[in-house]
Amino acid sequence: MTIQHPRLLLIDSYDSFTFNLAALCHTAIPDCSIHIIKNDQLTIAELLPLLKSFSAIIIGPGPGSPDIPDDVGVVKDIWRLSDCDLIPIFGVCLGFQSLVIEHGGQLRRLRVVKHGQVSEIFHDGRDIFQNLDQITAVRYHSYHAEPYTQQIEPLAWTDDGVENGSVLMAGRHRTRPFWGVQYHPESVLTDDGGLHILRNFWASAVEWSQKRARSLSPLDSHSFNILGPSWPHLKPSLLSTSHCMNSVITSIVQLSGANVLDISEILNVNDHKSPFVLLDSAASPGRFSIIASLLPSSLQILYYIGDVSVTLKRGSSVCHESLAREDIWSWIARLMRSARAINGHPDVPFWGGLIGTLSYELGVHTLDVPLRNNRRDTNPHPDVNLVYVQRCLVLDTFTSKVYIQSLLPDDWAWIADTADQLRTHSFRSTEASLNSKTSVQVELPDRSCYISKIKRAQEYLQSGDSYELCLTANTHLSVRSSVPTWERYKLLRRSNPAPYSAYLRLHPTTFLSSSPERFVSYSRPPDSFCQLRPIKGTMRKAPGMTRASAEQALRGSQKEVAENLMIVDLIRHDLHGVLGLDVEVKQFCAIEEYETVWQMVSVIEGRLPAGHCHDKVGWEVLRQSLPPGSMTGAPKKRSVEILQSLEEEDRSLYSGVFGYWCVGGGGDWSVAIRSCFKHESDTQESGLENWVIGAGGAITALSDPQAEWDEMLLKLKGVLGAFGAVKPRCHDC
Ligand SMILES: C=C(O[C@@H]1C=C(C(=O)O)C=C[C@H]1O)C(=O)O
Ligand SMILES: NC(=O)CC[C@H](N)C(=O)O
């Protein structure tokens, strides 16, 4: 066996932690290359001839049950390898359960399922636990395997006390080179039980292979074609940077007291017939606010999933450009490649570029999960709605500097004119008020129906199909009022100021946001790195509640930390999938204060390997990571399928993202929550505005249905403030 260049085959059962496991193997087994296949990609007959080119197989975790053939695919057959095909195998969670039950062990459901929980693992220091002290490790499982069989030797346990008693945590086959662990070695909170165990497995695998004089055949090109490139594989399109053709011109005005609302009004936000976009850092930790000055000729890009063309609007002129063989993501990337610009001010995150929204279903579609058949009848909103911004103002709320920027050649006259308008304007605090004639009807989700969905979600958690499900529901508002949407936004901003606030009037949709959650931001090359800031854990700001008590309630809660941990692990996987090895959790479960709630926020960062940089990398991360994990649950694909069956309507803009892609190469996209949106045809036809507000929360096995209903209402309440709507009743808010 060639130990210098080991080759691993990692079988993925559609889990959201697979790339974390690949990264751990890469660290544990120096110089190894890893090929990842799905468990239904090859039959055992197709796989067998390839095995001689691999040093070992890793069988990953996954949703479902090891005794359901569709859930494990080829894994079931792998244990039946004949002696001459034998190869060392290491199974994780679902992979381990399969190992045990295929060798005579019993599969049982845990009485109390363990998702995202840290447990002490006991072992007697033998075999793959050699040289290890007691370890703590993260568990994501609903089933466990009982090794009442001659063939499996138990190696580790945990003690769940009255909940589940002693639960098998690791074992090996007595005669064949098969090992496995029930816990997750790749989780960010697993200690030495992660890296060390894989190193020990590898040492045992090498020893076994040497004893058998097993040699490794080269991977021929035919096999390579079947398997695809090894991980980490950076897409060739990520390895070159476009040449910059365009230049940004900037002028800076120092204005004490400048506020984003006044600036928007100077830039004609009150002309409701025209599009307008504002990305507003209305609260800490937000810093820059971006206000576009759109032209009648500004390009608007609209796309509905399923369309073969993209709709391009410039004022009243509309045309359709065929996507030909491209998808919408590559089409946009190509547009931005030609728009690449230089020379903008280095302190300013946005110099011009695309601003707008991407729907939740756009991400669902990327995951290959079927959408509702009739979606276009019930959801008229575009799945992509972006405008190309050539002129904009960026307000640095920390320094009160306003950066006036243009991508148009020699646009100095507009810049000078705008600077003059700002200098002569007397800034005041623009107040919004509700028109007393406003009448609002609020159609809340039905409580008993929502609670029964929470219970159904929990059944999926019990059956091992998901570890966490972010269940949501839409609230519909019928508003008869003469309050323009801009005034409505000001009300929202006042009642629920948030770091990722936004006013996006992008016909046919108007979207108002008071989101606290950044999804992904990426800095401009050459130092491009990506940052994700998932939120899980929400606590109402009750009078007298201090940061310390919020911390105690959130960080001290096993349930809340588990919810957050699952999403952190999922996002690490999403990032490892695009960027390769360099992914790090920079902040775990910190408490942040917002206007009406405390939130628990983690920060995960990643970058391309040294020497590589590309202005498309952030876009690629976005494409591969939608919908946001915090809005789906884990494992993402199965969770999204379940949510599609539980939720009655498209989420549409809610749970998607909004933000920008700057011509300088950076970008920033926030999660579209605590937001509302409406379609312009509603108002035109009936004089009634129909607004939609989505809200929800992560359901885990530990969730109390009533508390989850209350949490959903709490999130909703922040947005209802913009409508002066009768507050929904809940026990706790
Ligand atoms: C589902 C929503 O929020 C999501 C769920 C959270 C939670 O479960 O604590 C927190 C932030 C969001 O990721 C929402 O605001 O509607
Ligand atoms: N993480 C996993 O692989 C979980 C395995 C299985 N779905 C269970 O719940 O037990």
Question: How much beta, percentage-wise?
Answer: 25-35%
Our count of helices gives 21
Biggest beta-sheet profile: 12 strands, antiparallel
Kindly report the CATH topology of the largest domain. Answer: Anthranilate synthase
Can you identify the CATH superfamily of the largest domain? Anthranilate synthase
> What percentage of residues falls in helices of 4 or more residues?
25-40%
EC number: 2.6.1.85
Family: In the C-terminal section; belongs to the anthranilate synthase component I family.
GO biological process, one term: 4-aminobenzoate biosynthetic process
Pfam family, one: Anth_synt_I_N
How would you sum up this structure, described in words?
The longest helix is centred in the last third of the chain and has 22 residues, at 558-579. The relative contact order is 0.12. The chain has two domains: 7-227, Rossmann fold, CATH 3.40.50.880; 246-723, Anthranilate synthase. It is globular, with a radius of gyration of 27 Å. The chain is built from 21 helices and 35 strands. It binds ligand ISJ and glutamine (GLN). It holds the Pfam family Chorismate_bind. One of its GO terms (biological process) is folic acid biosynthetic process. One of its GO terms (molecular function) is 4-amino-4-deoxychorismate synthase activity.
